[in-house]
Specification:
The protein is an all-alpha fold. 79% of the residues lie in helices and 0% in strands.
């Protein structure tokens, strides 16, 4: 199942790069009244995003037996309470985790955390919402998922103020939601000051450096990420950062590392084309 989740992530890397490079970090550029009005409209629209709505979307494409199992648990939830409801939610969370559907998983953990408030439950909710909005940056769902991630991480941090994972997640969500990006960056910097090898914070700072086209800073962040936990995505982002500052040889090596780890045909073809371009 871990391999399935990795393939899903790798398949989205190239698409996400397009979104990433096309958008500045919200709030780091001056917004006019029209943009603010559009944001207010978006906030209203995303109020309708909930477990039921994302579950309907997530079940599309699943095999019939699994869809039936999930539907049965959801039906039982409507008439449950207390310990029975908690157990059903945990069962549902297991289903969504197994098929790598982070949006309904986030809402399910959110419901679990309401019944069984704990740092870990709220952190799981935040992490799932983060995975969901990162994979859906170009959809109307993203703002609502980011908002839920921010709320979940804040609750986790309230329960454990020393949690660096919660602080890193909160900082990332704040930047992505667009209201006060420098506040989010400050939280992430606090995390790396206390833990220079924090994976979440370094990854987010690397991504935000790319979005603001500070590719030299992105290189440093992704080199740190790779020291902590090498991944196809981290090598890909490092390669792209190298490419944008003109270090072609380094970019080629990093792209090759990404290709080796991913072992994904679609990504391999893309990387082969990139390497050909860099070799010209």
């Amino acid at each position: 199942m871990h391999k399935t989740k990795q393939i899903i992530v790798i398949a989205l890397v190239v698409v996400l790069m397009g979104v990433l490079m096309a958008q500045p970090i919200k709030g780091l550029v001056k917004r006019d009244n029209t943009e603010q009005e559009q944001e207010a409209t978006t906030n209203t629209e995303t109020e309708a995003v909930n477990l039921a709505s994302v579950s309907t979307i997530a079940k599309q494409g699943l095999n019939a037996n699994l869809t039936k199992e999930i539907a049965e648990v959801e039906a039982a939830l409507s008439n449950s309470s207390g310990e029975e409801r908690l157990n059903l939610l945990k069962k549902l969370a297991g289903h969504w985790d197994d098929v790598a559907k982070p949006a309904p998983l986030g809402f399910t953990y959110e419901e679990i955390a309401k019944l069984e408030p704990s740092h870990d439950n709220w952190l799981k909710a935040g992490d799932a919402f983060t995975a969901a909005y990162e994979n859906l940056q170009d959809t109307v769902l993203a703002p609502a998922l980011t908002q839920h991630a921010q709320q979940a991480y804040q609750k986790a941090l309230d329960l454990n103020p020393k949690s660096l994972d919660a602080k890193a997640g909160l900082g990332t969500a704040i930047v992505n939601i667009g209201g006060a990006p420098m506040q989010g960056i400050a939280l992430l910097m606090e995390v790396v000051k206390e833990d220079p090898k924090n994976l979440k914070a370094n990854t987010s700072l690397g991504m935000f450096s790319m979005r603001s086209r500070q590719f030299d800073k992105a290189v440093d962040r992704f080199k740190t990420v790779i020291e902590i936990q090498p991944s196809a995505e981290a090598w890909f982002y490092l390669a792209t950062s190298y490419e944008n500052i003109g270090l072609k040889a380094e970019a080629i090596k990093a792209f090759q590392q990404s290709k080796t780890i991913a072992a994904d045909p679609s990504l391999s073809q893309f990387i082969d084309r990139k390497i050909d371009e860099l070799n010209k």
